[in-house]
Amino acid sequence: MIHRIAPILLAWLCAFSQSAWYDQPYRPQYHFSPRQNWTNDPNGLVYFDSEYHLFYQYNPFGDVWGHMSWGHAVSRDLVHWQELPVALPEENGVMIFTGSTVVDTHNTSGFCTGSKPCMVAVYTGHTPQTPVHAALQTQNLAYSNDHGRTWTKYSGNPVLDLHLSDFRDPHVFWSDQGRRWVMAVALPNDHKVLFYGSPDLRAWERLSEFGPAGAMGGQWECPTLTEVPVMGGRRDTRWVLKVGLNPGGLQGGSGEQYFVGSFDGTRFTNDNPPSTTLWTDYGKDCYCALTFNGMPRTQVPVMMGWMNNWQYAAKVPTQPWRGQMTIPRRLQLRKGPEGLRLVQEPIETVQALRGVHFTWSGVNIPDLNRALMEKIRGQSFELSSTVLGTTGEVGWRLLAGDGKFTTVGYANGEVFVDRTQSGETGFSKDFPARTSAPLVVGNAPLKLTILVDRSTVEVFAMDGLVAMTNLVYQPAPAKGMEFYAVGKPGRITVEGWELKSALK
Ligand code: FRU
Q1: What are the structural domains, with CATH classification, of the chain?
Q2: Ligand 1 touching residue 169 (CB < 6 A)
Q3: Which of 75, 128, 280, 437 has the most beta carbons within 10 angstroms of its beta carbon?
């Protein structure tokens, strides 16, 4: 008898312990967050042998920044994540800062010993300042011959040392144009990205540099250079150089800008004048986003960011974890009147989590709100609305309850998210905020796609032309939602889904 009951009991216990570990207030249900402790930037995003790897800046010992190491999680669909043991721990006083991972298919590095290609991580080693020496940041390698489960730090580290205290965040990828590995790495205080090339990941030669250009507040960090398809074009692509700024972001604190241009394997050339500043995300909470290496060539790039802001990251009211990632987003470029602009769409695999479905079309807003409240009840959902003839203000009040709510709206040529009334906001003076983005809708219908996941609100306006990511901390029972309009909009079409937890 016990033989029959034991496996059932074990399965039940596992299921119970998994959801118990991940069911605290504010815990996102389909965004990655570590089971416990602190995380910041995503690192080493790579697709290899049917698995997506997410490494991330991680403190194994606490819920504030420190002892930086690479945490590790894997997924087969970019939505269900399994957390694995720490991949690269801090060691001998050297922290493991942000970097990237490549699959060395042809064993250029000589690190691959098995029948399968090996994975090579390129990261910044950070030696903190002491009374007797300045801080030092160098670029280093580690490799894995077992699909990222165990790692060896290269005995010849560092592979790149300029004897600088600020020189970090290598983004490495294979360049077909240059027929070599290319690294984009930040010189934070100079507002520059340096480019290096290598045949084997071990020896690096300086190729070129980019910057200063665009926004130059604070330090430049986390550069990435990615080839992105142009929508509608026949296999047309441009290169997007993305750079984090901290502080100096559009909405205060940390934020990210991008440049569109060409890359010939050696040099990045900006299509726009250096004064043009383009922002990847108009919210307060998307930083150090990184694209996946190793994606099949038929797929457009996928990018994922840290959903937080250095202004208050150490104070956000979550436990036993702090820090979470954005939904992975597919990237394309769309041609508009002012040139090419980045378009971001949430990864389509989220759709597998869709549960209760709601559709509605009409002009009577009280009717819409009655129907909606009867259907969608959770704090994790997807909402898509199209409004014709938006002359006044229109939008959504979400996660409403007890007089608290978050507003996602459109008014005066701007799409905005207002979290000043959203719930817990008092933990930092920089948290209550209304973030906005200019958006010309003209005669087109206003289209908003909104992903809500307890403490996260991600807005994709006009099919992803504007992305806006913001954290919110509202009480768990706050599940109300309503559409509102000031003035008389035309026909409204709404489609929504409750989204099931990816943690169960
Ligand atoms: C950006 C950053 C990186 C650095 C890492 C350290 O958020 O400051 O520049 O590598 O975090 O955790």
Answers
A1: 34-346 (2.115.10.20), 350-499 (2.60.120.560)
A2: yes
A3: 280
